[in-house]
């Protein structure tokens, strides 16, 4: 009887729709709160750097800017307090770290921009802050410790000499950048005075960080990409590839030549790469499936963001079914419409050295307050797989052959083994000297360090870029 | 010393807010009202502590003594509200009463910090509104004929909205208010309540296709007037309130589905028809690319939120006043910046808790009319919070509505206080029903029938 009554009641006033309404909005709110938590966690830092955000002025009124240190504790940027209370930003190494450390006096660039919010925040203890406030002095901003190595940076900068160009050196296993040079450089101590001069000198683009923002034709270093596409299309049977090089290659009305018209005779897949035979790659590229080629360059990150926190440009290349045979030939050895930054090429090299999955490149290891408290530590993080381990293995073997019997022979027979790819990129129709490229890593068996070098308008990669790589490797492995 | 107090207050305030929120949800689970007494008293203590530390900080930071006076008046007003409600309506819903006081307090803390003159102005409005709304539960409880006044509601609502459309002032591109005798009112706020009563009176007897079509037609008139006045936020709130009332009246989920589909279609059409909708969507998708104009407000709101992180900057330590119209449309972001993300999340949860209490009251009521009123007001309330909070954090496009009880604005706060008072009245109806039920339980009568008679008796008396 009682049960019957209960059933009757439920029938009379069913609350199902009210429950539904409650759950419906509760779920929406949980989603919203989840989004909020994620947002605060992820975006907290970057916002402060926006010039529309007045909060940074508030912070710079309270704190003076923190220092930037190299990996071995050398000061790369410091704030000197003047007796009259004003602040001077000093860069003891002057031109040496101009682009990578950047400046903070005329807008913000480089590491100065990347970790600006940390440098203007102060993590010193509350009691110190209160003491400072009572004494009427500002709080010291937190310091940034970078992975930069002064000696490698010095060698890289010296090696470029008066040439324009860029060099990136990084650790394969962590993604830490050890050196990053762009020439021509500038003195950040006098940037305010020199500003107008740099702006007027459009031709040399002094302020551009060529290592991350310079858009270059990659030349033969791009054969790495074409080779990867070929490997994907001809899985397991690249050994069957043969081509007879006569020093030039004709397609319809156009004709391309190997560098300096060298005749390579009969070459297989590996030798084409090691000797950097343009004709063979023209032949190979023309026959490649455009769809697979397109997928390959997308996997490698063309026309897409790179996993870094500093400023850079995206590499650009579009390959689709409509592309002409002529264009395809040019693309296959890195000329024509291919536009690439040294940073991007470096990332691909690191992918090969790290079995397909590179680490995300980064510059800042940790942020430490003036009283020694670690505010934040940035640990190495793997990026996505750009290629399979097997593909990386084959490319490593090919890059080793470049050193053993190809264009990179200046790295042969040393106390460490090296692998890499040279490039000599033509940058305009006039056949002047080309841009010299090299990208590679060492040791081959267990890669530790990788370098990417471009020297503008100087000659072949084998002659001008490979020796720089050797100097950097020598320093890293402490070979005299 | 002063610095330590200011710094530690930040954590205390967050902590009390967490306690308050946790207790609110625990209270929902407890079955009997007398078990919850302790919860309510503790919650009141938390409210007073949050205010104490907030005003202490503000006085220490600024050295402004008038904040102390304001604080004193605020405490008196809140304390008398709690006591008076308790005396006049011993059977009120104290959880709802506490939430009302807490949200008002948060609003006053932030308003004091943002614009003290507005805080004072708001204080007078709230004090008067609290006093006036004290009689509402009584009327809701006693005047049972209100369910028969459907055409009065319809005429009132449509006229009020229509007047704004024709005579209203244009503020920031939309017509939402008009000024009578020096007082600017925003009728769409009050019409919310009338609208809910209207739809409830249309649907409570039966919700067959015939009633639904009639109500849809009437709702469409309201909403179209609001769309024509470019009052996007209100039209969405009316729409959602209507949809869920139809669902609860008809028990047919197809109506809800049809509503969502047609609402989605209308949204797409609105995007192509109205430039002000496109502007909002663009500012939502990428505020930083249009930061110079349409995206400025959104970007500033995001700066505030990200600056606050979890524990906030502390009062007077951030710059929430950089957000245009912060005190009406972006109170959430201001709270998030200075009182912190934890506090802000708790505040949203308290609002959600209010909504669940509304629904709980609806569930316990027998009479469909009151069930519809309670749930309709609840849905409108929670959806408005969703619009303003979600808009401020870039979860959804911005619509520019107030955060009820927290934001500055007389019409908004008065309307919300009326809604809360109506809910108290409905809660008392449930209480009387419950008592009646118990009596019947003793005499062994079949309760369903008896209750029906009881309600009808009331109808006749009225």
Q: How much is the radius of gyration of chain A in Å?
A: 28 Å
Helix content of chain B: over 70%
Unreliable stretches covering 5 or more consecutive residues of chain A: 1-11
The DSSP helix count of chain A reads 19
Identify the most extensive interface between protein chains.
Answer: A-B, 41 and 52 residues
Helical content of chain A stands at 25-40%
- What's the arrangement of strands in the largest beta sheet of chain A? 4-3-2-6-13-14
* Global shape of chain B: globular
Please state the CA-atom Rg of chain B, rounded to the nearest Å.
22 Å
**DSSP summary: helix tally of chain B:** 19
Strand content of chain B: under 5%
The beta-strand count of chain B equals: 3
Number of domains of chain B: 1
- Portion in strands of chain A: 15-25%
Derived from helix and strand composition plus strand pairing, the structural class of chain A reads alpha+beta
Overall average pLDDT of chain B: 87
**Mean pLDDT level of chain A:** 90
Spatial shape of chain A: globular
Largest sheet of chain A: 6 strands, mixed
Instruction: Pick out the low-confidence regions of chain B.
Output: 444-462
């Amino acid at each position: 009887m009682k049960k019957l009554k209960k059933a009757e009641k439920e029938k009379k006033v069913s609350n199902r729709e009210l429950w539904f309404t409650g759950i419906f909005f509760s779920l929406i709110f949980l989603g919203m709160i989840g989004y909020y938590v994620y947002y605060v966690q992820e975006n907290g830092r970057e916002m402060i750097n926006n010039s529309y955000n007045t909060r940074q002025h508030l912070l710079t009124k309270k704190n003076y800017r923190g220092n930037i240190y190299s990996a071995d504790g050398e000061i790369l940027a410091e704030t000197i307090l003047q007796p009259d209370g004003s602040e001077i930003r000093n860069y003891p190494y002057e031109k040496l770290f101009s682009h990578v450390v950047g400046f903070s006096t005329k807008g913000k660039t480089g590491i100065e921009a990347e970790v600006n919010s940390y440098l203007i925040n102060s993590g010193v203890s509350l009691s110190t802050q209160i003491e400072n406030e009572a004494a009427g002095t500002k709080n010291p901003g937190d310091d940034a410790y970078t992975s930069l190595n002064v000696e490698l940076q010095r060698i890289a900068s010296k090696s470029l000499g008066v040439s324009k160009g860029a060099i990136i050196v990084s650790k394969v296993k962590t993604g830490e950048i050890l050196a990053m040079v762009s020439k021509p450089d500038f003195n950040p101590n006098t940037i305010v005075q020199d500003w107008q001069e740099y702006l007027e000198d459009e031709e040399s683009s002094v302020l551009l960080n060529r290592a991350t923002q310079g858009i270059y034709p990659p030349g033969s270093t791009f054969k790495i990409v074409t080779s990867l596409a070929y490997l994907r299309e001809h899985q397991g049977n690249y050994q069957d590839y043969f081509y007879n090089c006569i020093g030039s290659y004709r397609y319809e009305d156009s004709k391309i030549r190997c560098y300096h018209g060298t005749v390579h005779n009969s070459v297989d897949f590996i030798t084409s790469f090691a000797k950097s035979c343009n004709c063979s790659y023209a032949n190979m590229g023309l026959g490649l499936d455009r769809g697979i080629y397109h997928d390959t360059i997308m996997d490698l990150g063309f026309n897409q963001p790179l996993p870094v926190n500093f400023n850079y440009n995206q590499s650009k290349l579009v390959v689709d079914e409509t592309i002409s045979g002529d264009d395809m030939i040019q693309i296959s050895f890195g000329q024509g419409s291919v536009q690439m930054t040294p940073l991007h090429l470096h990332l691909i090299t690191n992918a090969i050295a790290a079995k397909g999955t590179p680490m995300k490149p980064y510059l800042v290891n940790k942020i430490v307050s003036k009283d020694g408290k670690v505010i934040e530590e940035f640990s190495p993080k793997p990026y996505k797989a750009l290629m399979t381990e097997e593909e990386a293995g084959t490319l490593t073997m090919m890059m080793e052959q470049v050193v053993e019997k190809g264009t990179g022979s200046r790295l042969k027979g040393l106390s460490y083994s090296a692998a890499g790819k040279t490039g000599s990129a033509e940058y305009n129709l006039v056949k002047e000297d080309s841009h010299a490229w090299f990208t590679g890593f060492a040791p081959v068996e267990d890669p530790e360090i990788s370098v990417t070098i471009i020297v503008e308008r100087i000659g072949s990669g084998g002659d001008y870029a490979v020796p720089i790589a050797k100097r950097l490797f020598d320093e890293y492995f402490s070979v005299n | 010393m002063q610095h330590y107090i200011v710094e530690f207050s930040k954590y205390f305030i967050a902590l009390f807010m967490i306690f308050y929120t946790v207790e609110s949800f625990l209270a929902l689970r407890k079955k009997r009202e007398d078990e919850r007494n302790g919860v309510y008293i503790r919650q009141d203590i938390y409210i007073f502590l949050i205010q104490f530390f907030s005003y202490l900080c503000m006085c220490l930071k600024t050295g402004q003594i008038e904040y102390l006076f304001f604080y004193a008046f605020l405490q008196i007003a809140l304390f008398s509200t709690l006591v008076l409600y308790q005396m006049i309506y011993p059977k009120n819903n104290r959880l709802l009463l506490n939430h009302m006081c807490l949200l008002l307090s948060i609003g006053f803390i932030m308003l004091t910090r943002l614009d003290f003159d507005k805080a004072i102005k708001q204080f007078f409005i709230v004090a008067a509104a609290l006093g006036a709304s004290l009689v509402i539960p009584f009327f809701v409880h006693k005047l049972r004929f209100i369910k028969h006044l459907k055409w009065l509601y319809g005429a009132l609502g449509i006229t009020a909205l229509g007047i704004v459309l024709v005579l209203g002032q244009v503020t920031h591109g939309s017509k939402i208010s008009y000024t009578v005798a020096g007082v600017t009112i925003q009728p769409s706020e009050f019409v919310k309540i009338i609208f809910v009563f209207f739809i409830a009176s249309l649907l409570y007897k039966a919700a067959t296709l015939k009633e639904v079509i009639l109500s849809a037609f009437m709702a469409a008139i309201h909403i179209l007037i609001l769309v024509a006045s470019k009052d996007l936020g209100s039209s969405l709130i009316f729409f959602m309130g209507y949809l869920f009332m139809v669902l609860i009246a008809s028990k047919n989920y197809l109506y809800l589905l049809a509503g969502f589909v047609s609402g989605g279609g209308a949204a797409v059409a609105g995007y192509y028809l109205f430039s002000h909708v496109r502007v909002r969507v663009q500012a939502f998708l990428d505020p930083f690319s249009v930061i110079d104009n349409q995206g400025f407000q959104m970007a500033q709101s995001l700066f505030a939120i990200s600056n606050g992180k979890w524990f906030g900057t502390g009062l007077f330590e951030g710059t929430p006043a950089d957000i245009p119209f912060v005190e009406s449309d972006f109170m959430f972001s201001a709270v998030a910046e200075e009182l912190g993300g934890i506090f802000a999340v708790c505040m949203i949860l308290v609002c959600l808790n209010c909504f669940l209490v509304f629904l709980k009251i609806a569930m316990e009521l027998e009479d469909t009319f009151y069930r519809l009123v309670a749930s309709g007001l609840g849905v409108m309330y929670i959806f408005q919070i969703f619009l303003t909070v979600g808009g401020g954090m870039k979860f959804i496009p911005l619509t520019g509505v107030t955060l009820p009880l927290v934001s500055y604005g007389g019409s908004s706060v008065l309307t919300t206080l009326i809604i809360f008072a109506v809910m108290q009245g409905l809660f008392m109806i449930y209480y009387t029903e419950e008592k009646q039920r118990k009596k019947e339980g003793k005499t062994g009568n079949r309760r369903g029938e008896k209750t029906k008679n009881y309600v009808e008796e009331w109808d006749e008396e009225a």
